[in-house]
Design brief:
The protein is an alpha/beta fold. It has 2 domains: 355 residues, TIM Barrel; 59 residues, no CATH class. It is built from 19 helices and 8 strands. The protein has an 8-stranded parallel beta barrel, surrounded by 6 helices. β6, α13 and β7 form a beta-alpha-beta unit. α7 runs parallel beside α11. It is globular, with a radius of gyration of 23 Å.
Length: 431
């Protein structure tokens, strides 16, 4: 008998968990609003009962837009030591979550190290591990194999798991009649589609969704309902298969809530700038205002090497229109496994996008630090500016690398004696 109460159950009974207390400490949201949001499913706090040190972060309306960092090894780049350095970087640069997407090596050991070390949310895609550890051809994997892996990840303390339960046979038929330019670009989506087509069977996570809910309720694992049919190019954006899957995800969301399991919805993907608002509103409508977790979205397909920028543009617009959680994209997207510098660039781009969205929505307190920066810039107070900077180290490095000729001069080398701020101050035109 499981006596542990999920975050959703606790909120429904008006009980404030330690994770909720942390959210209330770092966010400007009334306690009743937080409890009501969690109870109805519009806010989630992914916090597995076995992740003992997780502080808890809220994802949903009325809260800061959160940022996730993907990491993990591949067959060709298999240094878990390097991936742990990326996890350290995620902590240093204030990401809210990491997802371990490892597809090779001793993934279980690395996963448990992350849970032991990191107090932030940790997510995984369990079916990758099924392929790694069963060593079977995809057709030979059984339903029990899929679910045994999910249970292992839950037991290990993973806070949220991506499950592509909405990619069912009906979606496969939609793909066949609505041909795509780039097909299925989701790794998890392509794995399940291959299993379904080659075995002539329904998606096990759709067919036996109640079995998934039983595991997630027991450990209080938040299900991140994966977008297996997210568009991988602008040409495929907002097409029939994507929307067909989204409709199914809405149905599964209701089923999860009935069992007090927390749910968030994953979203696109590659989306033209003018379609982002529509996609966010459509998801919120079809999925009953469950939190929305987006990859990017990337607003152009032709900027490899700069996709942290294309995704930051899309992420800011998405956050402005109601996206709750941004998955970072690095400059290495589409090209290679990201390195340390790529990870930092991706984190900062996503954090900037989320913050810009929070300002645009009028989130209480969001613009306070920006006003502080404006004040310190007016005063030419460099230490004050560094204090307000998202990346203090980089700001200090740039300042130090090019100082004015007179060491005591407070201007910068961009304008020097032509400094508009200094001139404006002398005219008493500021507050």
């Amino acid at each position: 008998m499981n006596n542990y109460m999920t975050q959703k159950q606790a909120a429904s009974r008006g009980l404030v968990t330690k994770q909720m207390k942390h959210v209330l400490k770092v966010e400007e949201i009334p306690e009743n609003d937080l409890l009501e949001g969690i109870a109805r499913g519009s806010i989630v706090i992914p916090a597995n009962k076995n992740h003992k040190i997780v502080k808890g972060a809220g994802i949903g309306p009325g809260l800061k837009t959160k940022t996730n960092v993907n990491l993990g090894v591949s067959k060709d780049q298999s240094s878990f030591e390097m991936e742990m350095k990326k996890a350290d970087l995620a902590m240093e640069y204030k990401a809210d979550a990491v997802m371990d997407l490892s597809v090779a090596g001793d993934t279980g050991r690395f996963r448990r190290q992350l849970v032991k070390k990191l107090p932030i949310m940790i997510g995984t895609v369990p079916i990758y591990d099924t392929l790694i550890h069963t060593q079977k051809d995809i057709e030979g994997i059984t339903v029990d194999n899929w679910f045994d892996t999910v249970k292992t990840h839950a037991e290990d303390g993973i806070d949220f798991i991506t499950i592509h339960a909405g990619l069912n046979l009906k979606c496969i038929e939609s793909l066949k009649t609505n041909k795509r330019l780039t097909g299925i670009v989701s790794r998890g989506g392509s794995i399940l589609a291959q299993w379904m087509i080659n075995n002539g069977k329904e998606n096990p996570f759709f067919e036996y969704f109640d079995r998934l809910l039983e595991i997630c309720r027991h450990y209080d694992v938040c299900i991140s309902l994966g977008d297996g049919l997210r568009p991988g190019s602008l040409k495929d954006a907002t097409d029939g298969p994507q929307i067909q899957e989204l409709i199914t995800l809405g149905e599964l969301t209701k089923a999860a809530w009935q069992e007090d399991v927390q749910v968030m919805i994953e979203g696109p993907g590659h989306i033209p700038l003018n379609e982002i608002e529509m996609n966010i509103k459509l998801q919120k409508k079809l999925c009953h205002n469950a939190p929305f977790y987006v990859l990017g979205p990337l607003v152009t397909d032709i900027a490899p090497g700069y996709d942290h920028i294309t995704s930051a543009i899309g992420g800011a617009v998405a956050a402005m229109h109601g996206a709750d959680f941004l998955c970072y994209v690095t400059p290495a997207e589409h090209l290679r496994l990201p390195g340390i510098d790529d990870v930092k660039e991706g984190i900062m781009a996503a954090r900037i996008a989320g913050h810009a969205g929070d300002i645009a929505t009028g989130l209480p307190g969001a613009v306070q630090m920006d006003h502080g920066m404006g004040k310190y810039r007016r005063e030419l107070n460099w230490e004050g500016q560094f204090k307000c900077a998202m990346d203090r180290k980089k700001a200090q490095l740039y300042r130090k690398s090019s100082m004015p000729a007179k060491a005591e001069d407070e201007v910068c080398t961009m304008c020097g004696d032509f400094c508009a701020v200094k001139r404006s101050n002398s005219l008493h035109l500021t507050k």
